[in-house]
Amino acid sequence: MTELLPLDPDELLTTTRSVRKRLDLERPVPIEIVREALEVALQAPTGSNSQTWHWIVLTEPDLKKRVGELYAKSFATYYANQAPRDETGQRVASSAQYLADVMGDVPVLVIGAIYTGGELPTGNQAGVWGSLLPGAWSLSLALRARGLGSAWTTLHLAYESEVAELLGIPPTVHQGVLLLVAYTKGTDFRPAERKPLDKVLHINGW
């Protein structure tokens, strides 16, 4: 069992960030620690306890590079079409560009996917993604507790079929998230600035 950081539950929840420029690209990540964190993630809820998720872990440099190239193409298109951004938006864009530049050098990539049996349902898909994304967030938390960081992205999904072909993912399985995983440069992460609760809280109706 890997030694855990001394974080209480609230601190763990409020300081687990999407880490980009503070990912340590030089320090190898043992696959055993990824497996240990995934064992924790498998305790997350799924609809009807179906557990139809799948976790594709990439450590092979050429595979990571090729996924990174597809991410970079998607990033270039997405951000070229964005409206002018404020200071925070520019900072996020810079971090996302950094990910596009270094994805092939990140020690581990993890793709969270889920069995759908074929095409995604029309209309509200909360039932599908609600059975995958809690597990992905639990994975991020479990990694943070072990001194690792993760960066959560979905931009590669513009090329989901190309990634599926590259990795042999069957057409009955859809990808939902890509996590870049590495040790972090320091572990002193702080809560991020968020909108005041009262701006988004609704009690007994909108």
Task: Write the CATH homologous superfamily.
Answer: NADH Oxidase
- Topology pattern, helix = H, strand = E: HHEHHEHHEHE
Morphology? globular
**Low-confidence spans:** none
Q: What would you report as the Rg, rounded to the nearest angstrom?
A: 17 Å
Polypeptide structure, described:
It is globular, with a radius of gyration of 17 Å. It is α+β, with helices and mostly antiparallel strands. The protein has 7 helices and 4 strands. The protein has helices spanning 9-15, 31-41, 61-80, 87-102, 126-129, 133-145, 160-167; strands spanning 53-58, 108-115, 148-153, 173-183. The protein has a single domain (16-199), classed as NADH Oxidase (3-Layer(aba) Sandwich), CATH 3.40.109. The chain has a 4-stranded antiparallel β-sheet.
Brief rundown of the structure:
Helix content is 38%, strand content 15%. By secondary structure, the protein is an alpha+beta fold.
Key words describing this protein structure:
206 residues; Nitroreductase; alpha+beta; single chain; 7 helices; 15% strand; 38% helix; Nitroreductase-like; oxidoreductase; oxidoreductase activity; four-stranded antiparallel beta sheet
